[in-house]
Amino acid sequence: MADASLLETFENPDTSGYVIEHTTEEFTSLCPKTGHPDFAAIILRYGPDQSCVELKSLKLYYHSYRNDGIFYEAVTNKIRDDLVKLMSPKWLELITKWRGRGGLHSRIIATHGEVPK
Amino acid sequence: MADASLLETFENPDTSGYVIEHTTEEFTSLCPKTGHPDFAAIILRYGPDQSCVELKSLKLYYHSYRNDGIFYEAVTNKIRDDLVKLMSPKWLELITKWRGRGGLHSRIIATHGEVPK
Amino acid sequence: MADASLLETFENPDTSGYVIEHTTEEFTSLCPKTGHPDFAAIILRYGPDQSCVELKSLKLYYHSYRNDGIFYEAVTNKIRDDLVKLMSPKWLELITKWRGRGGLHSRIIATHGEVPK
Amino acid sequence: MADASLLETFENPDTSGYVIEHTTEEFTSLCPKTGHPDFAAIILRYGPDQSCVELKSLKLYYHSYRNDGIFYEAVTNKIRDDLVKLMSPKWLELITKWRGRGGLHSRIIATHGEVPK
Amino acid sequence: MADASLLETFENPDTSGYVIEHTTEEFTSLCPKTGHPDFAAIILRYGPDQSCVELKSLKLYYHSYRNDGIFYEAVTNKIRDDLVKLMSPKWLELITKWRGRGGLHSRIIATHGEVPK
Amino acid sequence: MADASLLETFENPDTSGYVIEHTTEEFTSLCPKTGHPDFAAIILRYGPDQSCVELKSLKLYYHSYRNDGIFYEAVTNKIRDDLVKLMSPKWLELITKWRGRGGLHSRIIATHGEVPK
Amino acid sequence: MADASLLETFENPDTSGYVIEHTTEEFTSLCPKTGHPDFAAIILRYGPDQSCVELKSLKLYYHSYRNDGIFYEAVTNKIRDDLVKLMSPKWLELITKWRGRGGLHSRIIATHGEVPK
Amino acid sequence: MADASLLETFENPDTSGYVIEHTTEEFTSLCPKTGHPDFAAIILRYGPDQSCVELKSLKLYYHSYRNDGIFYEAVTNKIRDDLVKLMSPKWLELITKWRGRGGLHSRIIATHGEVPK
Amino acid sequence: MADASLLETFENPDTSGYVIEHTTEEFTSLCPKTGHPDFAAIILRYGPDQSCVELKSLKLYYHSYRNDGIFYEAVTNKIRDDLVKLMSPKWLELITKWRGRGGLHSRIIATHGEVPK
Amino acid sequence: MADASLLETFENPDTSGYVIEHTTEEFTSLCPKTGHPDFAAIILRYGPDQSCVELKSLKLYYHSYRNDGIFYEAVTNKIRDDLVKLMSPKWLELITKWRGRGGLHSRIIATHGEVPK
Fold first, then answer.
1. What pTM did the predictor assign?
2. What are the distances in angstroms from CA I44 to CA D36, D80, G108, I61, I111?
3. Least CB-CB distance to F26: which of J39, J63, J67?
């Protein structure tokens, strides 16, 4: 089950302002209505403040959605919220791109703070 | 027959402002003059307010146009209007791209509110 | 309903042996289990003997599947059989390529006689 | 009206055996059923014997189909026959590729003699 | 758990010999050593004899591997064996393409009978 | 005026059998009927025997066609013949590719001896 | 130091004959003359007999070359030999592709047994 | 071990303002948590002031990270800091692009001063 | 001056038969007629017997042509001959691809023994 | 010889302000120092005022440079000047792109008036 306690941080080695981007093409959860699997790519971009999310813990956190029935919109906002709460970044952008289901494919974009171009 | 009552919503899980995009390449309706089938891709983008359109209901709603004789322009504006009435989104953009007929292919763009770039 | 009587022929203007190829990317029928629409491209290639299929009648014949619930495999073989019965061509190849449904996309290949490379 | 008398030849400057290929993407004729314009590319390849088709006359000959209502299959075979009659080449291949009409696009291949790979 | 009893067939509508190909890019199982998720595309091609695998049942069968810890090689051979046992096809080819893990990405190819080019 | 006496050779430094290929995209001559300029690319491939064509002399030889009114077919065969006479190569292939004129573009292929793949 | 004892096998789940392919683009060793790092992609293909190489152990085995000074040719043959000794496969092909050094880039291909196309 | 003393400079031959860019696709270090190798491309862009980094010394400096266990974020900021301290450039941008690990691939962007577009 | 004595070998670590390929895109020599620089890519492929050419020595050997005035054909055959004499390989193929001069660009292919596909 | 009297105009059918662009890839003249042929593409863009250049006359005007020995820069400025004198356009841009000679290829840009982006 989706578990934000899996997320770990390490101290930001540099607070002068820089950009971090982590991308996966291997996210999967379940449709809350049909129970069928959904597949997505996730692009995370943020400007770190005091801490950074540790990469392996991020991977395990993403894996924890594997058997959850949850809407695209809810996944996207929950991940955004969990990461903002964890790190209090200067800004953060989370994009989920969902492979098609029933001929429809979707993209959800959630942000926190002022996202630079 | 095109049936807006097929559309369902769920409560927006997050009202902090984000973007939803649903795309299909499998829309079909009939030409009102010749009865011949028309084929289109539809790109829907919107900023949700209190509610979001449920994905499976959107698919069935699109399917309900299958045997309707209706102009490109009418399809595009009716879908825009049905979705705006359903969800009262902050903004919404609907683009239909029609495969060629008689050597002409068309694109129709309808919007509601202030669409961000 | 799929209707082979829509197909018309015209006399082959030349019997010295040549190749005809007609392609559409706008075929649609229904899934016999769920009633949901299926979308396909169809590639027809044949070597005509005494007669050729008339292009507009072929289009209308393809359209007649629009509201039929029928398996991919059955569509492919039925079209192959209807066209072979209509024209008795020297050889014929029919390929259907189906857009994805539930994450699976399919291709069916049916032939008649000796298909040249 | 299609007029084979427009075609001119010049004496083949070399009879040791070589290959000539002329391609146009600017052929147009009319549909014999609807009167609507059809557009095609034409690829002509041949092995000359005593004579070669003169290029400007070929262009004018192609232009002479502009207002003829004629089937794809008939166009292809007629051009092939006119050129074979004109030049008696060792071999000849004529391919017409037709832009879509009603969602169908076609390719017709007619040959004379043994066409090399 | 991987469950071959999910697979259903329907009677082959035509036994004159044709080719069926089903592709998914949404297969996932678990690594038997680490428990981490694996992701694969699967290409299935076969020549049907008396029966064909039903598409929705194939999708559910693929989904049943979701929480199984199983090697790439074992997945590939098991799917091949289950489908051969189900349908007794004239021939069958199953290819799995696995997204990278630890910097290595893999492809496994299993066949049954004489696979045509 | 096209002048084969411009061509020079040097002694083949190695007779064990190898392949030479020279390509230009800057050939120009005149149309013998209209006087308008024609533009071509020329690909020359050959297996040298006792001598090789010197590169600068080949360039000047090609330039000597600049103001000649001459058919595509005649150019191609004359260059082939001049080079064969000059070098007596084991084999030779000459391909001319002509830019479009009046919407037609052409390719002429002339060979000498057994051309390897 | 390169250490074949890191390699582990598991029992081949199916001996009816199939193909396994593992690719990495993250191999690095050192030049034995200058000590500078070399980088390569490695493509391993084989037909398993009684056993298969376990994927994680293969990764660790590749990593064990990290600080070895060793020629391209020796790396390639040693990996081939270690894997053949480990698994006694029906056949095996190992290709290493080395990024450039001093403007030269290289590819080494080593095989065992009869490699299928 | 990462060693900034390896870096050397030479006097900037021109102080009127220009841009220097050095790219490598052959950076490797170790994961500080697992000890497994990480692979990255590094893009360095800067506007030189009084001095420029010497190219061979930059290569050796990058090589000195080979056996260090260090986070992506720390690598990126340390290289940026070492180069800024070395050269005091007008501006500098350092981008690291990391090959995937556990299905995640990352990009880190660190800057100094006002980076032009 | 081109100097075959720069070439060094090392003992072939494996005589079971494999393939080595070295490519450079940085070869330059002078035109023997005009003194202008020529630029080429060189692809060397061979099957080693008792010895292999050492990579750094190959680079220096290629560099030694820098100020030599020499024909394309002579370069190609001399390199082939020097390498065959040095290593007595089972087979060898040398391809030189020359950038354009005076609008002509060339490719020369020299071989030794039976070159596999 | 380059002959501006070949240029003809027709009356501009619309003076509300629009853009005309004519491109050729078949321009050739001679190098004034060596007599060797030069090849260029020419892009002409202008905003017409009272008159427009007639297309066939422009082609013949370009052809009239065929045997002139003239520098790239002189060609470009002369064509610009001839066309400005002929038409007095609101603005005009003439770009010549020359195929390589001796490894250099060139582009010359001449303008008249205020050229829009």
1. 0.88
2. 58, 48, 12, 13, 10
3. J39
